């Protein structure tokens, strides 16, 4: 059962990652990223994780009874993932509807 949960979690994560980058020209993205300095990119990623850790702490203390930080942090990351996926889904659907009317 534990292996099934891990396979399910990784499977969903990989599907979401593929969906997030669907239609993105990866060669152009990678060539653009090569021209960026590494330190600002790492600081941006670190700031993002700190922001989601703070959201996790906020969620931890807002609930009665209090959640564990790990659970609250994961809930914040799930919210981020759903926000990203739903946003892209709505964008793709809108683009499809607009093409039908052109």
In short:
By secondary structure, the chain is mainly alpha-helical. It has helices at residues 2-20, 26-34, 38-62, 69-101.
Strand element count: 0
Major sheet, described briefly? Answer: none
What is the beta-strand fraction? under 5%
Query: Into which percent range does the helicity of residues fall?
Result: over 70%
Q: Mean pLDDT, as a whole number?
A: 79
Q: Unreliable runs, pLDDT <50, ≥5 residues?
A: none
End-to-end separation in angstroms reads: 50 Å
Which term fits the overall shape? extended
List the domain count as a whole number.
Answer: 2
- Strand-pairing-aware structural class: mainly alpha
- Radius of gyration of CA atoms, rounded to a whole number: 18 Å
What does the oligomeric state look like here?
single chain
Task: Give the number of helices.
Answer: 4
One letter per element, helices H and strands E, the order comes to HHHH
Give a written overview of the molecule.
- By secondary structure, the protein is mainly α.
- It has 2 domains: 1-35; 36-102.
- 84% of the residues lie in helices and 0% in strands.
- It is built from 4 helices and no strands.
- It is extended and about 45 Å long.
Topology:
Elements: H1 2-20, H2 26-34, H3 38-62, H4 69-101
Helix pairs in contact: 3-4
């Amino acid at each position: 059962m534990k292996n099934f949960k891990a396979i399910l979690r990784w499977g969903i994560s990989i599907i979401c990652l593929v969906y997030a980058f669907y239609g993105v020209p990866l060669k152009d993205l990678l060539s653009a990223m090569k021209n960026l300095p590494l330190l600002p990119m790492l600081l941006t990623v670190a700031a993002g994780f700190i922001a989601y850790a703070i959201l996790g702490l906020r969620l931890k203390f807002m609930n009665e009874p209090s959640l564990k930080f790990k659970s609250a942090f994961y809930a914040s990351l799930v919210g981020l993932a759903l926000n990203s996926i739903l946003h892209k889904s709505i964008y793709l659907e809108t683009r499809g509807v607009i093409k039908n009317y052109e």
